[in-house]
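S.,

Sequence below, as promised.
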Amino acid sequence: MNVPRKASRTPLKRFHIAAAGMATAVMLAGTGACGGEGRQATQPTRTITQTVTAGETSTPSPSVSTSPTSQTRYLSDLTPLTSSQGVDTSAVEINGEGFARSVTLIANAAGPVNSVEYNLSRHWDMFSATIGLRDDSPTGGKLTFEVSVDGKQEYSETVPLGRSQKIELDLSNALRMKLTVTYSGQDAGSSYYGSWGNARLSS
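The prediction came back faster than expected:
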């Protein structure tokens, strides 16, 4: 009568062992899966790091300009081709404003016209200056300022003491430039100083 009971216990033990084996296999599979996910999670991190590094490495450096550099030259640094009564290149004040790099021409009844000419060598594009009588000129004085380029008058203006004007003239392909101041009938015993403040050439 006990045989059937013994026969029924053996399959139960095998079932428990098999079930335990399956549970162990599931746990191992789960551990493997977790490990796989951990390895895959580190790869995107490396990819992001590489991307940032590549971005920093590929950042373009400041470009170097290949355009021609502009040049400036003050007339006070040039030797005139001709000068009728000499040129003063000292610092001046015109209408209360100081100019360190200037050209001044004196004019009076004895020498009513004073001019200076420069060689441009077809190198410069623009002439700039602030014109007017030097502030220590006699009261009530005025002078006519003229600029000629290759023999053609390009600018003419009469300026009284206490006034100033800024001028800019095109010198493209010019060979010669002549500056002139003209005395216009003030006190015959006085001299007047026509200044070209910070007179300069540029290209």
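The radius of gyration is 46 Å.

Coffee later?
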